[in-house]
Design a protein that fits this description.
The complex is a heterodimer of chains A (338) and B (364). In chain A, the strands form three sheets. Chain A has a seven-stranded mixed sheet. A four-stranded mixed sheet of chain A has the order 1-6-4-5, with helices on one face. With 338 residues, chain A is of the alpha+beta class. In chain A, strand 4, helix 3 and strand 5 form a beta-alpha-beta unit. Chain A folds into two domains: 148 residues, 2-Layer Sandwich (60s Ribosomal Protein L30, Chain: A), CATH 3.30.1330.10; 157 residues, Alpha-Beta Complex (Phosphoribosyl-aminoimidazole Synthetase, Chain A, domain 2). Chain A is built from eight helices and 13 strands. The longest helix of chain B has 17 residues. Chain B has one domain: Rossmann fold (3-Layer(aba) Sandwich), CATH 3.40.50. In chain B, helix 2 links the parallel strand 1 and strand 2. Chain B has 16 helices and eleven strands. In chain B, the strands form three sheets. In chain B, strands 2-1-7-8-9 form a five-stranded parallel sheet. By secondary structure, chain B is α/β, with parallel strands linked by helices. Chain B starts with 11 loop residues before the first helix and ends in a 6-residue tail after the last helix. Chain B is globular and about 65 Å long. The chains are: A alpha+beta (338), B alpha/beta (364). At the A-B interface, helix 7, strand 12 and strand 13 of A face helix 1 and helix 16 of B.
């Protein structure tokens, strides 16, 4: 038992933890430095050398239930969540730190799987893991696992949430609500395998060429609170109105269906591999073409535009021809999804 | 949208045609049509249907949210039972509704055992799992949830299981709204799922006596627009009848078995509705034969019967369909779903809560 589960001894910082780190955790990460001192040195900190540009730093803690879900796990999520925050700031990720908090008794096989998927995302991005930490808490003091990641990125041009101007097109890079609904369905025990999967994915490869055009004036990843929260924040910060055509919002049928069944709007639940962009109106086609040429952006769509009316608020033209405000969600209807 | 049959009742082309017909049938003077169903309000708000109604035609939610109309005295009773050591089981929204002093959620924070269940049957399971404890199911809801409570009462529940009935009936509430002195109700949309139980015939006496059109309505956008159209057509033609615009779910007689269960377990009794007051015959009292499971008789507690009305709150008028949420000065300012002042903001089906989430009636 001691061999295949996390024990309190792992948390004591001695030999057992060092063996776990050196034998099972570190080898999963091919890139372990972004400067002279990185993960291998097991020093008190990493030394990172940065290319020129604006330095962007972001951090996020992830507690998700279940920690392995259709389409991904907390490992992939913890990396994507942070690098996507960098990406929608306009920043290329340069280095990442990762801190694990584990509950005593956590299965080592699950830990391996989680770290493998984190490492796969990092490998895809060519992004080094430069520092890390592991703590163990007693049985019952934590629900399995929590992961914090901090990302350092560099932006040539920073893209703020609030850069939207009247006339800009609102573009979404793919169907919304997949992550939140997949988790919800998994928790409720719905069997819709293959249909309902988290969209968790790193956005930088999709967004890099689009951001390079300079046509993107605002960007946000619709995580907690989903598309509704992202659009409301963009409208508020830019003091413009946003008009959205409900019929243009890409939604997978399974996501729509589960939403109907549970009475939860897919527009209010999280995505983990999508971005909402405010694009200069005369350059929309160029941006859409670039997005759609990438596998992650094939279903990218224009779903609305920024308008001078009702500044700070979002209006939805509903499928049946009605109009209403799309309000800021009260709180994510699905707790602990990211 | 061609994603199957469910979406045929959201067809944009049909919605446009109905909107045009509604304009044609709109009367010259303003009319107020009242529905009494949180699910109707949700659909109306979510699909922005008010923007498709002709000017002068208003559709308002009356006392359609069972959580909102539960009086403070019933809540105080539940809180007292919970603080007194009973396991108190109820539906989720009820835990946040303010009583005189405490909500059930606050009682739980003080150590009371308050549990959220999805049905009366779940509460019976709790009672079986804890034979040494008193388990009270705080039963709220209209004719839709009441048969579920009746079924467990009649199915020989364990001796430690009790029902605190705050169940209410819809037809007496419609009659009470019509009898209110300042009524300006031109017609009703009758609630689809209540009507599946009680049948379209349950409204005939009211329509005839009060000379008011009543149309049974479903919950998809076209269902609602069509039902409004039928009300306007009756008004234009000077008729006051019951029409069934939801025949795919509602029959004339309703669910006779469910009606029998209700009659076997309960008898109609006067009941207080928050904001409205006492309505004769609008409550369901557990029958004498089942009194051993009636919390009101078997577990008596002293509470004030009076009505606490938070200062400034206009929920009473909202529940009487005499005001809309945005008429209230507290709406969106001091009163929000996270910090509700009045009951209409607490219940997820309350008009204020729905207007907060979906933007109500925007001037767009």
């Amino acid at each position: 038992m001691t061999e295949d589960r996390i024990t309190a001894v792992h948390g004591a910082g001695g030999e057992l933890m060092e063996r776990l780190l050196v034998e099972r955790i570190l080898p999963k990460f091919p890139l372990r430095r972004a400067g002279p001192i990185g993960l291998d040195e097991l020093d008190d900190g990493a030394v990172v050398e940065l290319p020129p540009g604006h330095v962007v730093v972001t951090t996020d803690s992830h507690v998700v239930k279940p920690y392995i879900f259709p389409g991904g796990d907390i490992g992939a999520l913890a990396v994507c969540g942070t690098v996507n925050d960098l990406a929608v700031m306009g920043a290329r990720p340069v280095a990442l730190t990762l801190a694990l908090v584990l509950e005593e008794g956590f299965p080592l096989s699950d830990l391996e799987r989680i770290l493998t998927s984190a490492a796969e995302v990092l490998a895809e991005l060519g992004l080094p893991l430069v520092a890390g930490d592991t703590k163990v808490m007693g049985k019952g003091e934590l629900d399995g696992i929590a992961i914090n990641t901090t990302g350092i990125g560099v932006a040539e041009r920073v893209v703020p949430d609030g850069g939207l101007r009247v006339g800009d097109a609102i573009v979404v890079t793919g169907p919304v609500g997949d992550h939140g609904m997949a988790l919800l369905a998994a928790r409720e025990g719905f069997h819709l395998a293959g249909e309902l999967r988290s969209d968790v994915a790193p956005l930088w490869p999709l967004l890099a060429p689009v951001l390079a055009t300079g046509a993107v004036r605002a960007a946000k990843d619709p995580t907690r609170g989903g598309l509704a929260a992202a659009l409301n924040e963009m409208a508020r910060k830019a003091r413009v109105g946003i008009e959205v055509e409900e019929g243009e919002i890409p939604l997978r049928p399974a996501v729509r269906g589960v939403g109907e069944l549970l009475g939860i709007s897919p527009l209010e639940v999280a995505c983990e591999g999508r971005a909402v962009l405010g694009v200069e109106p005369d350059r929309v086609d160029e941006v859409l073409t670039l997005l759609q040429s990438h596998p992650l952006g094939r279903e990218a769509r224009v779903l609305g535009r920024a308008v001078p009316q009702h500044p700070g608020r979002v209006v939805l033209a509903t499928g049946v021809g009605g109009r209403r405000f799309l309000e800021m969600p009260l709180g994510d209807p699905v707790p602990r999804i990211c | 949208m061609s994603e199957g049959a469910a979406f045929q009742f959201r067809d944009p082309g049909r919605a446009r045609e109905l909107a045009a017909l509604l304009r044609r049938y709109a009367p010259p003077e303003p009319v107020r049509i009242v529905h009494v169903c949180g699910t109707h309000e949700m659909a109306i708000a979510q699909y922005g249907l008010r923007s498709l109604l002709p000017p002068g035609v208003e559709v308002l939610e009356g006392p359609g949210c069972p959580v909102c109309v539960t009086p403070t005295a019933d809540l105080d009773r539940a809180v007292k039972l919970a603080l007194g050591g009973a396991i108190l089981c109820t539906f989720g929204d009820m835990t946040r509704v303010p009583g005189t002093r405490l909500t059930l959620a606050e009682a739980r924070a003080r150590g009371a055992d308050v549990r959220i269940v999805l049905s009366a049957a779940d509460a019976v399971e709790v009672a079986r799992a804890h034979p040494g404890r008193t388990v009270v199911f705080f039963a709220v809801g209209f004719e839709t949830t009441a048969p579920g409570t009746a079924a467990v009462l009649l199915d020989h529940p364990p001796a430690n299981f009790f029902v605190l009935s705050a169940h209410k009936l819809i037809p007496p509430a419609l009659a009470a709204l019509l009898a209110a002195p300042s009524r300006r109700i031109a017609g009703f949309l009758a609630p689809g799922h209540v009507s599946t139980v009680i049948g379209a015939r349950a409204y005939r006496a009211i329509a005839a006596e009060h000379r008011v059109p009543i149309v049974v309505a479903g919950f998809e956008p076209l269902d609602i627009l069509y039902a409004v159209l039928l009300v306007l057509r009756q008004l234009r033609e000077g008729r006051a009848e019951v029409e069934n615009a939801y025949p795919r779910a509602v029959t004339e007689a309703g669910n006779v078995r469910a009606q029998e269960l209700l009659r076997e377990a309960f008898e109609p009794a006067p009941a207080r509705w928050r904001g409205i007051g006492e309505i004769p015959g609008s409550g369901l009292r557990v029958r004498d034969e089942l009194a051993a499971h009636d919390a009101a008789r078997a577990l008596p507690v002293e509470v004030e019967e009076g009505e606490e009305k938070p200062p400034g709150c206009r929920c009473a008028e909202v529940l009487l369909a005499q005001a809309v949420p945005s008429d209230c000065p507290l709406f969106r300012t001091r009163c929000t779903p996270l910090a509700p002042v009045g009951p209409c903001m607490v219940g997820a089906e309350g008009a204020c809560h729905v207007w907060y989430r979906y933007g109500g009636r925007p001037a767009l």
